[in-house]
Design brief:
Length: 143
């Protein structure tokens, strides 16, 4: 995807924190499901020993593999996005990288930016505008 204008660059930058949160939530959810299926598999084996005629849930292993594959997809998506950011950050100077990292990757609110990067709030706006102009025309991977 090509970043055609400043609004599109800012939207892509804002989505960096959302992708990070989405990845964390999905991985936590899938890990919970994997744990549940593992416990279910153990209880099914015990139940089968006690009562052989009982019907058990025997597809737990395939579900666990599916959810592990989903976790790998989430990590790959996040790693591709970070690789895009690392490539784009080479086009920026150190102040621009610092301000964008604090704002968009770490999610720092504007009121706290002054204390994190030691620039005034207005200067942070200028730095971000300058860096966004540098990123117009660059390409990034699709989400």
């Amino acid at each position: 995807m090509k970043l055609n204008d400043k609004a599109q660059v800012k939207k892509w930058l804002r989505n960096l924190t959302l992708i990070k949160r989405e990845m964390k939530l999905k991985i936590d959810f899938y890990n919970t499901l994997i744990d549940d299926f593992a416990r279910l598999n153990v209880s099914d084996k015990r139940l089968k020993k006690l009562k052989p005629e009982s019907d058990t849930y025997t597809t737990a292993a395939s579900n666990i593999n599916f959810y592990r594959a989903e976790i790998d997809k989430c990590r790959e998506k996040y790693n591709n996005t970070l690789n895009d950011w690392n490539r784009l950050s080479e086009l920026l100077d150190s102040d621009e990288v610092m301000v964008i990292t604090e704002k968009y990757l770490k999610g720092t609110v504007w009121d706290a930016m002054e204390f994190k990067v030691f620039f005034s709030r207005r200067q942070c706006f200028r730095i971000i505008d300058r860096s966004v102009e540098k990123l117009v025309g660059q390409t990034v991977g699709e989400w």
